[in-house]
Amino acid sequence: MAFNVLVVDDSAVMRAMIIRVVKMSGVPLGEFYEAGNGEEGLRQLGANWIDLVLLDINMPVMNGEEMLRRLRADPETARLPVIVVSTESSETRVHALEELGVAFVHKPFAPEDLRATILRVTGVTPDDEYYAVPAADGGDFDF
């Protein structure tokens, strides 16, 4: 199964970095979709089949928390795997996000930490035959 991934972050540089890490994660990938805020993210979800969302919290127009609430309220997206990738570090806020059934990775992140979270959330393990396929760019985490 190839995963279609939506990356929602107001920073184009951060979206590119996250996409690079996901490509090197060992997870079988389909298409990548990008959005600069939660409103654009919801439009992407309405137009495309998405298997995994990587979501920032602090964004203009519609923040990640509002997008996440709407995802969880919609029966079609309520169980969609979401990883929040954010500078937000308030223990209360992180706990509230985890209550919504999401994983959390703190920015700035080590590529290995994001990779481990992606593998945990997607359920991909080193025993899976597609895990052993090298990433398109060689799988090196050097930026």
UniProtKB/TrEMBL annotation:
Residues modified as 4-aspartylphosphate are D56
Q: Name one process (GO BP) from the record.
A: phosphorelay signal transduction system
The record, for Pfam families, names:
Response_reg
Keyword Transmembrane belongs to the record: no
Q: Which positions fall inside the Response regulatory domain?
A: 4-122
Record InterPro entries: Bact_response_regulator, CheY-like_superfamily, Sig_transdc_resp-reg_receiver
Swiss-Prot/TrEMBL keywords: Phosphoprotein, Two-component regulatory system
What is the official name of this protein in its record?
Answer: Response regulator
Coding gene? cheY64H-1
